[in-house]
Amino acid sequence: MSVLLEVKDLKVSYGSIMAVKGVSLTVNQGEIVTLIGSNGAGKSTTLRTISGLLKPISGSINFDGKEIAGKAGHEIVAMGLCQSPEGRRIFPRMSVRENLDLGAFLRNDKVAIEADREKVLDLFPRLRERYEQKGATMSGGEQQMLAVARALMGAPKLLLLDEPSMGLAPVLVAMIFETIIKIREQGVTILLIEQNASAALDVADRAYVLESGNIKMSGIASDLAKDEAVTKAYLGG
Question: Which residue ranges of the chain lie beneath pLDDT 50?
């Protein structure tokens, strides 16, 4: 299995506060890998640094054989690494159609863009129903679907998902996780950050546990789901 993303000894700070203290992780082609941990553990900071929104102090981020640490976000998206951000961050005054168009803004392969649009609308039928509706008028669950669909319109080799189930009703959480499995079946590799550790470990192949900016544990997701320390800290056991 070939390594698609390799993060080595990543350090990131906000001013004098060290948020990520030497994180190393790998994501292999075709995998779903999850990064779990409590609030403030450094999960989103790690993801935002991988996607070029934050600059690391040190460490390397190798994506698809190329070093990307410190590169601009749009360059990283053009290489095939797309993020669905925490808090959705859709464009509220734009319609579903316009949000999806923006997801593909770096592409010029018109035929493939149209094929991908059909693919994401098949994945999220609700978005087809709301196609010309403004983002702001949609429910939280629909906005989350749109955020993921917009990221998929960038034709990612690697999709970064930051807290996709946050604030959603349990029935929608189940639907989002079923969709994550379908996205992987379509050939997209996924790095998932999630507070709902139990749901994340359920869909992931491998997992890393982040605590205060350090990786505390890693392994096969199903093994970690049975681990006593993980159960106690993250699964309410």
Answer: none
Give me the DSSP letters along 86-123: TT----TTSBHHHHHHHHTTT---HHHHHHHHHHHHHH
Domains of the chain listed by start with CATH number = 1-80+193-237 (3.40.50.300)
Which strands sit side by side in the sheet containing 206-211, from one edge to the other?
81-84, 158-162, 189-193, 32-36, 206-211, 214-220
Q: At what angle do helices 96-103 and 140-152 cross, to 10 degrees?
A: 30
Is residue 44 a contact partner of residue 193, using CB atoms and an 8 Å limit? yes
The reported pTM is 0.92
Residues 125 and 11: their CA atoms lie apart, in Å, by 40
Dihedral sign computed on CA atoms, order 201, 202, 203, 206: positive
Q: What is the pLDDT of residue 70?
A: 86
- Cα distances (Å, whole numbers) of residue 93 to 70, 98, 124: 31, 9, 20
**CB–CB of 5/62 below 8 Å?**
yes
Dihedral sign for Cα atoms in the order 14, 15, 16, 21: positive
Give the angle subtended at the CA of 35 by the CAs of 30 and 37, to the nearest 5°.
165
Q: Is residue 170 a contact partner of residue 177, using CB atoms and an 8 Å limit?
A: no
Q: What is the pLDDT of residue 170?
A: 87
